[in-house]
TrEMBL record:
The entry's keywords: Molybdenum, Oxidoreductase
Name of the gene encoding the protein in the UniProt record: hcrA_2
Domain Aldehyde oxidase/xanthine dehydrogenase a/b hammerhead: 23-139
Protein name: Xanthine dehydrogenase subunit XdhA
Region ranges (Disordered): 551-576
Entries under InterPro entries matching the protein: Ald_Oxase/Xan_DH_a/b, Ald_Oxase/Xan_DH_a/b_sf, Ald_Oxase/xanthine_DH-like, AldOxase/xan_DH_MoCoBD1, AldOxase/xan_DH_MoCoBD2, AldOxase/xan_DH_Mopterin-bd_sf, XdhA_XDHase
The keyword Chloroplast appears for this protein: no
GO cellular component: xanthine dehydrogenase complex
UniProt-recorded Gene Ontology molecular function terms: iron ion binding; xanthine dehydrogenase activity
Membrane spanning residue stretches: none
Protein's UniProt keywords contain Protein biosynthesis: no
Length: 576
């Protein structure tokens, strides 16, 4: 039986969420309003490091509409982790559990010490401002270098060094020293906030069966379910998480943010709906940022432009709490190894606590900071040796058949050299570079080139897997259930295309697959970039199972119809 020609992928189609978005019917978390819903606002620290000595909330409690005020003394004394990583039974590979719902020991400006619940949002805000606190201030640490000083004040029990690691292919320093030219560099990357359009919002209420339902703007609904259970010490099965439309995440919502607090509040207030919504200022103070890196690098290059080896020493600033922590720094070192793999390579990193807002996942997951240092050193080497910056990259770029020098993982497809060649031609690189070099005057225009490598993995566990479940309806449409989260990247549409591609059908019949309902099933992959690749494979595999069963039933019931090749919609389906 020959496979039918693919007809669903590779062609333009309307996004499955297009109509909802352009008509305004798409509901984001803050659009949810429920009868009797209350609002919660935090009381935050005005200092970056210290202890709350005493708290006075009498004025706040006297305001009409205030339902409750909770402080650090009222919440469970259970530390929990917030990073969007899969759970593991290996304690050494788990994320650091250093968070509490509220804390007396504040570790950054804006740390939460109390929360007010009121009938309306304005009353909650006003009451939060009326809570007065006496503070005992401690020394403030803002850089990893200061955090590692012998006399540094400890931000957490156990010291300010969260974790450290080293990766190497051997005696890299000797290889660098033996090269014709050595270059050294000191680089710093800044703290950056994601600034997604939608703020961080969570709404929670208790069902009739005492199960807590949470609606949240999140990238990781299934991990939210687990972390809420851990933070409140309740069975994970007692938590249900709904992810509606999401107005951007970029990694910030790959952390569990306000969901545990929303769940705690509804459990303490008889199950009434409680919404916790952060302002834009609070998003800067109390969500996540990109890790600031301090990098010292060395590189050895021969006169012909061959990269012999390089080493990087990284200090990562994770802020007041671990979040994704050392996973960012170590993963970045592994990701960059694919860029120029035919050389010696050493990477050491330390991740430190400071009194800045917590850093977490952000697009690139450690790679942008590390690649910046590597590409800067390679440019310096090209300038010193008189080699064209594009040419030096072409001589060292990853090619098919190369392997990551740290892990030995083979590169099965690579288009970097072809990309550089095509880019050089389209950009007219030689012409523009010559024009820039001949400029005079104070105002000049420059051109440059840089390469980037990224693999979707974390650290220390780099395996990414995905699952999908397909349900066929009586009318022939298919429901796709998967843990992958649609947050604007088009995952739902791609999955619908993949199902139609493997299921078969054309015209109107196929369009019904594009618009099939989409449900959450199980989460394994966490990042936007890998979602389509992994989950599409899972969908294709499940389509194969459906097709085999469908053809089997067709042969038994309608033996002649499955062999009718005149109608494309009656041809045998292709197993994915």
């Amino acid at each position: 039986m020959e496979a039918r020609e693919a007809t669903a992928t590779g062609e333009s189609c309307m996004r499955v969420d297009a109509i909802a978005k352009v008509t305004g019917r798409a509901r984001y978390t803050d659009d949810y309003v429920m009868a009797g819903m209350c609002y919660a606002k935090y009381v935050r620290s005005p200092i970056a490091h210290g202890y709350a000595v005493s708290i006075n909330d009498e004025q706040a409690r006297s305001l009409p509409g205030v339902l409750a005020i909770f402080t650090w003394e009222d919440v469970p004394d259970i530390p929990f982790a917030t990073a969007g990583h899969a759970w593991t039974l290996d304690e050494n590979k788990r994320d650091t559990a250093d968070r509490a719902l509220l804390t007396r020991h504040v570790r950054h400006h804006g740390d939460a010490v109390a929360i007010v619940v009121a009938r309306d949002e304005l009353t909650a805000e006003k009451a939060a401002q009326l809570v007065s606190i006496e503070w005992q201030e401690l020394p403030v640490i803002t850089t990893p270098e200061a955090a590692l000083a012998e006399d540094a004040a400890p931000i957490h029990n156990g010291g300010n060094l969260l974790k450290q690691s080293t990766m190497s292919t051997g005696n890299v320093q000797q290889t660098i020293d033996a090269a014709d030219y050595q270059v050294q560099g000191h680089y710093q990357t800044p703290v950056i906030q994601h600034c997604h359009m939608e703020s961080v919002t969570s709404l929670a209420w208790m069902e009739d069966d005492s199960r807590i339902t949470i609606v949240s703007s999140t990238q990781i609904p299934h991990i939210v379910r687990r972390v809420v259970g851990q933070a409140l010490d309740i069975p994970w099965s007692c938590v249900r998480v709904i992810k509606p439309f999401v107005g951007g995440g970029f990694g910030n919502k790959q952390d569990v943010l306000e969901e545990p607090m929303a769940a705690f509040l509804t459990s303490k207030l008889g199950g009434i709906p409680v919404k916790v919504s952060l302002s834009r200022e609070e998003c800067f103070l109390a969500t996540r940022t990109r890790h600031a890196f301090t990098i010292d690098g060395q590189m050895g290059v021969n006169r012909d432009g061959t990269l012999k080896g390089y080493s990087l020493d990284v200090l990562s600033n994770t802020g007041a709490y671990a979040s994704h922590g050392h996973s960012i720094a170590s993963a970045g070192g592994n990701k960059v190894a694919y860029l120029y793999p035919r050389c010696a390579y050493a990477y050491s990193s330390k991740t430190c606590y400071t009194n800045l807002p917590s850093a977490g996942a952000m697009r690139g997951y450690g790679a942008p900071q590390v690649v910046f240092a590597v590409e800067s050193m390679l440019d310096d080497a090209a300038t010193a040796l008189g080699i064209d910056p594009v040419e030096i990259r072409l001589r060292n770029a990853a090619r098919e058949g190369d392997a990551n020098p740290l892990t030995g993982k083979r590169i099965y497809s690579a288009g970097l050299p072809e990309c550089l060649e095509k880019g050089r031609k389209i950009f007219e690189w030689e012409k523009r570079r010559a024009e820039c070099q001949n400029q005079q005057g104070n105002l000049r225009r420059g051109v440059g080139v840089a390469c980037f490598s990224y693999t979707s993995n974390t650290w220390p566990v780099g395996v990414e897997i995905a699952g999908a479940r397909l349900l066929m309806n009586q009318d022939g449409t298919i429901n796709v259930q998967s843990g992958a989260t649609e947050i604007g990247q088009g995952a739902d549409t791609v999955f619908s295309q993949m199902v139609a591609e493997n299921r078969g059908g054309s015209g109107q019949r196929r369009s019904r697959y594009f618009n099939s309902r989409y449900r959450r099933y199980a989460v394994r992959s966490r990042r936007i970039c890998l979602t389509p690749e992994l989950c599409c494979r899972a969908c294709a595999a499940q389509c194969g199972t459906i097709i085999k069963r469908e053809n089997h039933r067709s042969r038994r019931s309608h033996a002649t119809s499955v062999s009718d090749e005149s109608d494309p919609d009656k041809r045998p389906y292709r197993a994915g």
